[in-house]
């Protein structure tokens, strides 16, 4: 499959003017800088890093992100685990609560020598894992903790249930530790708020680990992570590893939270002007929601970027020009409502780049990344990506 992608793009032009639109651009320099900055921060905090590969779903990006070719890594689908395992990644956490019907695939990876850990947050899952472990190698499992009411997991205060799930797993030789994700941090708006979310995340994970240890159960792994808290946390005492994923590309949601600027966003969609509705103040482009996704993650932030922030072909934002609406294959650009900005004169055929609200969702609309570097219109390669579960 990956070879098919490469073959289809073996005749890439030398510069972006020759590309068919819409297509996905990845700024290699910004990617590398984002990765280096996160590594340096976590190294200074003396905590291990387990990058999340769900955003990129790309072997080429993975080579630049992982601390070592064999890992550690985080994945969000078993398809990711299977593909990255074939590429030599040996240490992974599947960071989604396990559906019992997926356990045979987990067992197959374990038997192939992959140290794949899974998640559980209830006795039913733990019992299914224990039963599957009885028929093969133990399935190392982390108990999922809900540190902020954002998603799934046991709350840190529920010591009885955490211990009950832990005992089931430990009896099967499957208990590895606890894991939490501070998804509520996506609602933060200031550095202080992000730092507070990081502190709550750490406290919740450490409390859950102490419940297990206090009951005489092992808890070697205490795993936390989200891009805002990974980037903002200063104290990781009691934490063994930090996970983060979207940091490698960043996006407008992360810029709105305050953990990056638009100059750090490595991902953009190249599009062409295909028409105008001057009576409505619209410019029409060939990138609709099939190219950008339907994600409106900045709608509740102080600055609403609608479906994306519009840049010139050089990647520099055009002041107050946004994609205000999206049909399947049509994007509608207009001046930001309430701003006295004149609509730029962009003729049919003009090239633009649009920064996405949510890098994961936008990347998922494309089969690969056209690699570029800031300040240049030259193309430096094509990195395929994959989807599926």
Topology, pairings included?
Blueprint: H1 2-8, E1 23-27, H2 28-44, E2 48-51, H3 59-65, E3 73-75, H4 78-86, E4 91-97, H5 103-111, E5 115-120, H6 123-134, E6 141-145, H7 159-171, E7 175-180, H8 191-214, E8 221-224, H9 227-232, E9 241-244, H10 252-257, E10 267-277, E11 282-285, H11 289-292, E12 309-311, E13 317-326, E14 331-335, E15 351-355, H12 359-363, E16 368-372, E17 381-384
Parallel strand pairs: 1-16, 2-9, 3-4, 4-5, 5-6, 6-7, 7-8, 8-9
Antiparallel strand pairs: 1-10, 10-11, 10-15, 11-14, 12-13, 12-15, 13-14, 16-17
Would you mind describing this structure in some detail?
The protein is α/β, with parallel strands linked by helices and about 400 residues long. It has two domains: about 45-250, Alpha-Beta Barrel (TIM Barrel); about 265-385, Beta Barrel (Lyase, Ornithine Decarboxylase, Chain A, domain 1), CATH 2.40.37. The chain is built from twelve helices and 17 strands. It has helices spanning about 1-10, 30-45, 60-65, 80-85, 105-110, 125-135, 160-170, 190-215, 225-230, 250-255, 290, 360-365; strands at about 25, 50, 75, 90-95, 115-120, 140-145, 175-180, 220-225, 240-245, 265-275, 280-285, 310, 315-325, 330-335, 350-355, 370, 380-385. Strands 2-9-8-7-6-5-4-3 form an eight-stranded parallel beta sheet. The protein has a six-stranded antiparallel beta barrel with strand order 10-11-14-13-12-15. Helix 6 (about 125-135) packs parallel to helix 7 (about 160-170). It is elongated, with a radius of gyration of 22 Å. The two termini are about 15 Å apart. The model is unreliable at about 1-10 (pLDDT under 50). Belongs to the DSD1 family. Keywords: Lyase. One of its GO terms (biological process) is D-serine catabolic process. InterPro entries: Ala_racemase_N, D-amino_acid_metab_enzyme, D-ser_dehydrat-like_dom, D-ser_dehydrat-like_sf, PLP-binding_barrel. This is D-serine deaminase-like pyridoxal phosphate-dependent protein.
